[in-house]
Amino acid sequence: MYYYRDKDAKEIDIVLEHDGVLNPIEIKKTSSPGSELTRVFAVLDRASAKRGNGAILCMKPELGAIDRDNYIVPIWMI
């Protein structure tokens, strides 16, 4: 488990690594996360490891998806 922050202030709250795959996770207080929250995940494409699915952990009451690669995960599910 890692976090990412670069000199340009791009930040990913949690990067889970398993079997050579990096899964980015953002933690937000919002109950209506937007796709702009996953843009920073693209910084992991420069890594030597493959980028897997990402997630926004938030206050939304139900599990959902931002797109086919990024999920919305309610905080109560963890």
Describe, in short, the structure shown.
The protein has 78 residues and is mainly β. It has strands at 2-5, 11-18, 21-27, 50-51, 54-58, 64-67, 70-74. Strands 1, 2, 3, 4, 5, 6 and 7 form a 7-stranded mixed β-sheet that branches.
Q: Please tell me the overall pLDDT.
A: 95
- Basic shape: globular
Radius of gyration: 12 Å
The structural domain count equals 1
Describe this structure in words.
This protein is mainly β. It has one domain (2-77). 0% of the residues lie in helices and 45% in strands. It is built from no helices and seven strands. Strands 1, 2, 3, 4, 5, 6 and 7 form a seven-stranded mixed β-sheet that branches. The mean pLDDT is 95.
Topology of this protein?
Layout: E1 2-5, E2 11-18, E3 21-27, E4 50-51, E5 54-58, E6 64-67, E7 70-74
Parallel strand pairs: 3-4, 3-5, 5-7
Antiparallel strand pairs: 1-2, 2-3, 6-7
